[in-house]
Amino acid sequence: MTNVDTRTYDVVVIGAGPVGENVADRTTAAGLSTVIVESELVGGECSYWACEPSKALLRPALLRADAGRVPGLGPAAAGPLDTAAVLAHRDRMAAHWNDDGQVEWLKTAGIDLQRGHGRLDGPRRVAVTTPDGGTIRLLARHAVAVCTGSTAALPDLPGLAALRPWTSREATSAPQPPGRLVIVGAGVVATEMATAWQSLGTEVTLLAHGARLLPQMEPFAGELVADRLREAGTDLRFGVTVTTAARTGGEVGITLSGGGRLTADEILFAIGRAPRTGDIGLETVGLIPGDWLTTDDSLTVTAAPGDWLYAVGDVNRRALLTHQGKLGAEKTMLSCVGAGRGRYWRILPGTCGRWSPSEMPSVGNWLAISRAVRGPGAVAV
Ligand SMILES: Cc1cc2nc3c(=O)[nH]c(=O)nc-3n(C[C@H](O)[C@H](O)[C@H](O)COP(=O)(O)OP(=O)(O)OC[C@H]3O[C@@H](n4cnc5c(N)ncnc54)[C@H](O)[C@@H]3O)c2cc1C
């Protein structure tokens, strides 16, 4: 690189999602000069295509379901939702996909923002391709924190690009409810989006590969959610996979394992998450592009020698939740300022989901995880 603008900071954060913002906020507050690099919108997936819009879509559906169970209120709450009002509220909660407010917050917190795509360029170095095609080199005295998050995983189906399937992004930002939606998946995103779009009048078919919903959790949780989705009108099918899917005109034709066929207006794949590490220069520090970043409990990337590279939030695959990532941000700051490299967690300190007309709050680990960590003696209470 010649004539490249080079700037030095104590900490360089790649990715201004909720976790990167928190890392930057905490390191700045601890007196470390910090720059944050963002290629899309400051606020990340959570603000625009995940937590915020999904919860805005779900709230009316959940309140209506709750009200329907209150004696005397049921008939009054049974009417259809006002779709335009629900979607307008969702748009407001996603800040109309405009990050001015969050950019302003970065300024007030004293954090420098560098727009562009960040890539590691050797130890403690980040090269940013700016929106106008230029390059800026950022040098980190102490640490680089990779907070690039995750993206929707997609199946290996022929003709996927022409199919134009929905991922969590389209499912949380669609301007109108589709008439018929096929959802492939059985986890949180699949069940939340089934609930939300069903409540706005969409005919939803949910295809689960396994025998139950929410397979990571206690069986009763998935059963309860399945009961509620069926009551709301979702067509739930278990033990089924998509073998082919193709878009013809405005319609999607789907072939199922076992030979069944379905037709829909949209198909949503909610089959898991993949790390956003394919193009962040991991190869320049001896790591493999496209891999999740494995860390120790201080969130230092274990395969990168020298204690300078951190992976925080979804990208380390520890717990793909905003509040867990923010907890990690605090740990990272403490490690950066040399205040200790203690354990990140022994048990999940508390998670809570609002996933269907049956909400599933939880504290601590699910039984299967506890048994894996603590042995077969672990019990559910
Ligand atoms: C539908 C849905 C609903 C959810 N609901 C909840 C919920 O209710 N509660 C909850 O706790 N969690 C929820 N989650 C999970 C939550 O969204 C994630 O855990 C959270 O967004 C992770 O934050 P992050 O900062 O690690 O990554 P992200 O939010 O993905 O942010 C990463 C940022 O890095 C940027 N970036 C990536 N690569 C580069 C690069 N090379 N250079 C510069 N910038 C880059 C991206 O543009 C992005 O802004 C939900 C997820 C989904 C999909």
- Beta-strand share of residues: 15-25%
* Cα-to-Cα separation, first versus last residue: 60 Å
Q: What string, H for helix and E for strand, traces the elements in order?
A: EHEHHHHHEEEEEHHEHEHEEEEEEEHEEH
Taken together, the total number of domains comes to 2
Segments where pLDDT lies below 50 for 5+ residues? 339-355
**CATH topological fold name of the largest domain:** FAD/NAD(P)-binding domain
Overall mean pLDDT score?
90
Total count of strands: 18
DSSP helical segment count: 12
For CATH, the homologous superfamily of the largest domain is named as FAD/NAD(P)-binding domain
Which structural class should the secondary elements be placed in? alpha/beta
The CATH architecture of the largest domain would be 3-Layer(bba) Sandwich
Biggest sheet statistics: 7 strands, mixed
CATH hierarchy class name of the largest domain: Alpha Beta
Helix amount, in percent? 25-40%
Bound molecules: flavin-adenine dinucleotide
